[in-house]
Amino acid sequence: MPDQVALEGDADYHKDGYITGSEFRNVFTEHHAGARSVVVSLWEVASKEAVEFMEIFYRNIKDGKNRADALKLARKEIKSRYPHPFYWAVFVLYGEG
After folding, report:
1. Which helix (H) or strand (E) holds 38?
2. Distance (Å, whole) CA 49 – CA 22
3. 69-95: pLDDT as tens digits
């Protein structure tokens, strides 16, 4: 089982564009149980910027940062490049930091 899983948040939305907490829990439990943490996008992501974000995030982990700090540093770096929250606030971490 993977230590961490990344999910794109737009995969199984309702027609109104929202997924409930219990639905998220079901998706996590059915498909990713056992992972210590999950990184989820809160909305459909812009490809280029999302790739940059995740490259920075995983670089930070490779450099020895814990997941929470790696995400925080990735947000900060992306925010300096793309000030709109659409780009830097898209990913959240659930589980162990």
Report:
1. strand 37-41
2. 29
3. 999 999 999 999 999 999 999 899 887
